[in-house]
Amino acid sequence: MIGRLGPGLIIPGNGHFDTTQANIRRNNIQPMNLFSAELMDERSASHFKGDMDVERFKKLLERSHSKIPLSYLTITNNTGGGQPFRWKISGRFSELSHNYEIPLFFDACRFAENAWFIQQFEQGYGSKDIKR
Ligand SMILES: Cc1ncc(COP(=O)(O)O)c(C=O)c1O
Q: pTM of the entire structure?
């Protein structure tokens, strides 16, 4: 499946970077941004607005998994304003992708900053060393 190009395919992610999105479109594939509800809520004070909406991803997989050549995680979610992603949600995203044998790609452009946010603000990671 990977490497397949063309109309009818979808590449979902938490928020594709602008140039990534343009390259996906140029290959006649539909980029799909499954932004988190927290990102869409102006009043939300969440530290993790860059998460993916996992429930929407789950529904998309149930409906259209054969149309998905790969899924995509952008860390941090720069299209959504440089917002970080929770470690726990990335695990869920990875598990769901693998259940359908869909490769998960990382745009780990700002992974170090994201790791700092996880250490500072995600429950259970306060004592983790960012380097490991
Ligand atoms: C999340 C993300 N991915 C990729 C890139 C690099 O994009 P490009 O190679 O098109 O300059 C950037 C640049 O800021 C980015 O923020």
A: 0.91
